[in-house]
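The record is given unchanged here:
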Amino acid sequence: MGLVSVTELLKRAEEGGYAVGAFNCNNMEIVQAIMAAAEAERAPVILQASQGAIRYAGINYIVAMVREAADQATVPVALHLDHGTDFNQVMLCIRHGFSSVMIDGSRLPLPENIALTKKVVEVAHAVGVS
């Protein structure tokens, strides 16, 4: 099936009156367990990678693992960056095909947080990333 848009996934969920689970994954076994549960429930799923998971496993491994799971899935699967704190990390995830990204500027003064968030949103939306 391949990776899907988080925007589309959540739009369908809202229309259908159901929730979509989002789960952090650091390794193959976690991805396999999440996908087995999603398939058993016939439920869409968002697989999330934190910056820590990306440092631990490497972005190429995370992306390849999730893409393979999505390609084999009969349910919709999205890949999301969870709590990215660095603009360059977010851009790396976008370039590697993440479905959506979340920038967390909560450690910054409010004006800097707003500026960073706006910058990420502009880039992400320009390339169809939620």
